[in-house]
Amino acid sequence: MIIDGHVHMGKGDFGTLDELKQDMQKAGIDKAVLVPGGMIDVRRMTRYITGVEKPKGDDIPNDVIEHIIHSEPDKFYGFYCVNPHKRREAVIDLENGIQKGFKGLKLAPIVHGFSLASKTVMELADLCGQYNVPFYSHVLFSPGASTKKMAALAKEFPNTNFIIGHMGFGPADVDAMEYAAMYDNLYLETSQGSFAGIKTALETCGSSKLIFGSEFPLYKPISSLMTIRELNCKESDFDNILYKNIQYLLNVK
Amino acid sequence: MKSTDVVAIALPYEMSSAGQAFQRVAQLCFGAAVLPVGKGGAYSEPCKTIKMMCDLGCNVIFTSPSYIVELMKVAKRDGIDITEKIHLDMIWLTGEGCSDAFRKKIKKMWGCDARFYYGSLECGALGIECEAGCGYHIPISHVYVEIIDPDTKEKLEDGEIGEIVVTTLLKEGTPLIRYRTQDLGYMERMECECGIELPKLYLRGRRADQIYIAGEEYAPFYVEEMLMRIEEVGENYYMNVHEDHVEVVIELSAETKYYEGIEEIISSKLEFSCGIPNNIVVVDEIPYSGKKMKRVNYVY
Ligand SMILES: [Zn+2]
């Protein structure tokens, strides 16, 4: 069994559901966690990171994901994305999303430009703990959405599970690894992670803290998976990384 | 500048060389007409300055960032449309630190170009911006500028941020050798867009103004840049530094209407971009102090 823990799905013609299914089959991936995408055109990603181009943050395609997870509930899980600048509305929105079958929260600091220490983010983190669904966010170089702030959240909300996307910030975020080792409720998702970074993380925080993800459509699932295969770790470690950890966080079998 | 310019000098004429120095340059070097409107002297009121600028066809002004905002506000209060009644070609900003984002707001509200002039009472002119609006050209026949590590006092390489140190080359009465300005900046040797190939100076705020919260250091210069990039934030602000956070008192921008919770949104945007734990307080108006604007206050 292999579950891809991080796949983007949006409304555009780049990275469609058909393409995803073909790529999953090719890589031997059984299931995938979908998060809303398309707010950023990933084919021009660096322009967004440098702030030259602004994302279309108002149109979050949660509906696209909702449709897929309802039509193929055994194959796809969904994370619900909200804009914390909407404050109370964002919290209510997430709660509705969870009730509609979404299995986690996805935040996009690069799209919405908020601080991980803001009041609304704290409320969202708390809500995730109440519903026992994971809180997923990537971290940035921006100090308000840094690895450190994400770790501070994990410390503040011990009943919520947190997933740091893309192994943290940069090619080998040792802080993210050390925090994952320090806090039981903090996990790292491997997409975009370098081989050396993931290998170091395996030694630092162990396989029970790593979740395989591909970051489709920016990356091909087969190449992301190959990086994991090259770790040459024990079968039980592979199982943790490739499906057991995410199954545990999503409460699914 | 040219001889047909009408130049308002809205800088102090008392206890400072600024007003007189700029007046001399405008009159003697360019033959321009000067309006010595001053800034805060006995007869110098913002409404009079606005009236003179309107009536006498002023097209260039030398002033500080906080005063140009005050002039705009006074004009607005008196029902004068500044872009309609005053046709400025250029605003020269000096005397206070100013981020590029703040400058952009000033350019927008006056509808003209705005450039920085960096100087100090002690040393005179230290840097002048060209039309590229990015970094200062150093008047190298007047001053020799170096960047040093403020702790080790060693001279730094190009691109490294440190304290700006100045040696004056022409002053006879008060010569200065390696005078420590307490200003932070760095130098770069790359040909400017305007064609000048000499080294350029970039400012990074003042050493003494750095904000320390819970063991972290934040540069007010950078905090201002990020604050001014937030569309909801207006042209005036100050910060009160507390032990574990900074309270940022702001006015809203002209396009923004107050609504409940806007403080949290602005606070989150600011913390996102510069990491500073903060609390936003929105007020209708921050009154002009009449003095040099003090934007960072320690309250503990
Ligand atoms: Zn130039």
Gross morphology of chain B: globular
What fraction of residues of chain B sit in β-strands? 25-35%
CATH class bucket of chain A: Alpha Beta
What structural class do helix, strand and pairing data of chain A support?
alpha/beta
User: What share of residues of chain A is helical?
Assistant: 40-55%
Number of separate domains of chain B: 3
Looking across the biggest beta sheet of chain A, what order are the strands in?
Answer: 1-2-3-4-5-6-7-8
- Largest beta-sheet characterization of chain B: 11 strands, mixed
Task: Count helical runs of chain A.
Answer: 11
Examine the coordinates and then state which fold CATH places here, giving the name of the CATH topology of chain A: TIM Barrel
Number of strands of chain A: 8
Number of helices of chain B: 7
Approximate strand percentage of chain A: 5-15%
SSE topology string of chain B: EHEHEHHEHEEEEEEEEEHEEHEE
Chain pair with largest interface: A-B, 19 and 14 residues
Order of helices and strands of chain A: EHEHHEHEHHEHEHEHEHH
What is the first-to-last residue Cα distance of chain B? Answer: 47 Å
Structural class of chain B, please? alpha/beta
Low-confidence stretches of chain A: none
Strand order, biggest sheet of chain B? Answer: 2-1-3-4-5-6-7-11-10-9-8
What would your notes on this structure say?
The complex is a heterodimer of chains A (253) and B (300). Chain A is of the alpha/beta class. Chain A has one domain (3-250): Metal-dependent hydrolases (TIM Barrel). Chain A has helices spanning 17-27, 45-49, 62-71, 88-99, 109-112, 119-131, 147-156, 174-182, 195-205, 221-229, 235-250; strands spanning 3-9, 31-36, 76-81, 104-107, 135-137, 162-164, 186-189, 210-211. In chain A, α4 runs parallel beside α6 (119-131) and α8 (174-182) runs parallel beside α9 (195-205). The N and C termini of chain A lie close together (11 Å). The mean pLDDT of chain A is 94. Chain B contains seven helices and 17 strands. In chain B, strands 2-1-3-4-5-6-7-11-10-9-8 form an eleven-stranded mixed sheet, with helices on both faces. A four-stranded mixed sheet of chain B has the order 16-15-14-17. Chain B has a two-stranded antiparallel ribbon with strand order 12-13. In chain B, β6 (124-129) and β7 form a beta hairpin. The interface between A and B is medium-sized, with 19 and 14 residues. Bound molecules: zinc ion (ZN). Residues 130, 132, 137, 192, 194, 196 of chain B line the site of zinc ion. Chain A: GO terms for molecular function: carboxy-lyase activity; hydrolase activity. Chain A: This is Amidohydrolase family protein. Chain A: InterPro entries: ACMSD (IPR032465), Amidohydro-rel (IPR006680), Metal_Hydrolase (IPR032466). Chain A: Pfam families: Amidohydro_2.
